[in-house]
Known about the structure:
Oligomer: single chain
Radius of gyration: 24 Å
Amino acid sequence: MKANATANSLTRQRWLGWAKRAVTLVFFVLVAALLVTLMRNVDWPAVAETLRGYAVLTLLAGAGIAAASYLVFSSYDLLGKAYTGHALPARRVMLVAFVCYAFNLNLGAWVGSLAMRYRLYTRLGLGVATVTRVLSVSLIANWLGYMLLAGAIFAFRLLELPQSWEIGAAGLQVVGVGLLVVSFAYLAACRFSRRRLWQVRGHEIVLPPLRLALLQAALGALNWTLMAALIYLLLPPGLFFPGILGILLISAIAGVITHIPAGLGVLEAVFLALLQHQVAPSVVLAALIGYRALYFLLPLVVACLAYLALERRGRKRKREARRDTLAAPGRAETKAEDD
């Protein structure tokens, strides 16, 4: 009977895996078809003209917003430092987080959030278990902030949908309420739950104190707001900022579903579809190209240089540790002779 139950469980997991792949593929095809349809009507010379029309002060302000966003995101790992109590200096923690965030945005979560974080932190002396806990704090901060913002915008219908999409407004509102319920349930658990250790898919999660959880929510929400502020800056004046933020949040989850690095094409498809009734497609595309240059490509260049510096420090630390290990027997023999 136990063997049959195991076989049934494996079969169910296999079918769930195939279903997940099928949904992802369908979603990817739909986004691609939507993007092709929208791109046919784009006036590319007008896109180039809009890009050339950005004032230097506007681009500098955009770079400042991007820098502030990266600073906020890097602070997620400072929460992880407080949560785990590890001894790495704060400036090095923020440098690692910055590098990982830039690579994560451009190359995907498996490279930035996972592989690179484990590599850099372990080379700097942290154990795998500690890195996992730092990563969990960072991920929860990011998505807790997301859920609070998306929940509020969707629940209160702050996102203006095209007329052809109005049928989905009620469903989006239900999703928003659900996101708010999950977010406040997490905060309530951090405050009131007597059980602090939870198992989620084989991973141990220790609930942080409420103060740290509130900082997670605040920093996460602030980071998403800054990202939307950069796009808002590059779009024509007069648009409703919560609406721009809501579109960014929808495009972010669409990018996660399709697993496309940097959400390439997904971001554009969602913004074009939801802003086509307010802004010319050429203007939207110009704003998103500027956004990608300031928020994705420019930080990636800086992150590559910072990554090389961190790798060099990691190699130096490894050599010093090996030298100390080799010298240890000699020191022990000298001490024995002295005795």
